[in-house]
Amino acid sequence: MSTYLLPDRNTCYQPTSITAENQIPTEEEQAYKKLDEKLKGLLATLPKDKGWRSANIYLHEAFMKCGTTWLKALMFATANRHRYSFSDHPLRRNGPQSAFPFLDTHIFLDYPITKFEHLPSPRMFATHFAHSLLPISLSSPSSTCKFVYVCRDPKDALISKWHFMSKLRSKELPPLSFNEAYELFCNGVSEYGPFWDHVLGYWKASQEAPEKILFLKYEDMKREPSVELKKLAAFMGMPFSAEEEKRGVVGEIVKLCSFENLSNLEVNNDGGGAQKFTAQVVVENRDFFRKGKVGDWKNYLTEEMRERIDSITETKFKNSGLTLGLTKNA
Ligand code: A3P
């Protein structure tokens, strides 16, 4: 998963895509429909395989279940720490999903995207798109846009994704067995492309331009949340002052954004909110929280399965300098 922020103008983002005033003007709607038809034609020519959520998935470049929700909360709380008190924080009422927009869904719901002008500074967005799919205007060295990327042991990403997708899966389809999900994952069949390619794309880019891309690991964040949060704040150009550290601001943000706190909020539980991903896909906030632990894969993978995933990881990341989730160095 990757999140990026644009310099300029910030308060809690209020999802606006479902209201009447957001209806796409007719001309744009027509242009979009034309584009949609063209894309459908193009998609029909792509290779396809069994899907996680629907019957088929089309193979193209492009990951998820690596800590997007957590990172959103941390970034929002950090950027707005002077604005809100921790006891009455918008994250407590609205949850992290409302903190800032998820671009991938706006592409489906609001195309063409023109609704971000009003967003306050710093403008922050979330996306799962692969680095190679980003427009040059965002990824080129001259762009002032910065990225924060979070990744995770692929074995835990697989388990998390299987649970998540099982909830979203069309009720008209039989349940996706774990073995099927495992095969799809190992074969790189995922909505955002193969896990390993996704991670490598951002890893390489972060090595080339560390000032532009901050590369984080879920496991490091779990082990030393304060250390990683300080890294994040400095990268965002909003380092914690000595006085803030003395007042315990770092600890307050860590606590506010912890799994235990966020997963128990009303908005992330029964009676809580939901996110509209596409016209057909609506995800309840509570589905973004499951266990929030490192190493849950041990409860699902056989030794043979672990070995296969670790071996793919080793091969794919060879000579890249990146280590992730290998059991011997986890
Ligand atoms: P598990 O399914 O392993 O529990 P994403 O936000 O990218 O969809 O990732 C979801 C994963 O992050 C889930 O992992 C979820 O439980 C975990 N998660 C969500 N909020 C978290 C938080 N505040 N701290 C740690 N993990 C969190």
From TrEMBL:
GO terms for molecular function: sulfotransferase activity. The keyword Transferase applies. Keywords: Transferase. Residues 63-321 form the Sulfotransferase domain. It holds the Pfam family Sulfotransfer_1. It is an enzyme of class 2 (transferase). InterPro entries: P-loop_NTPase, Sulfotransferase_dom. Its EC number is 2.8.2.-. The keyword Transferase applies. SUPFAM superfamilies: P-loop containing nucleoside triphosphate hydrolases. It comes from the Eukaryota. Belongs to the sulfotransferase 1 family. This is Sulfotransferase. It comes from Lactuca saligna (Willowleaf lettuce).
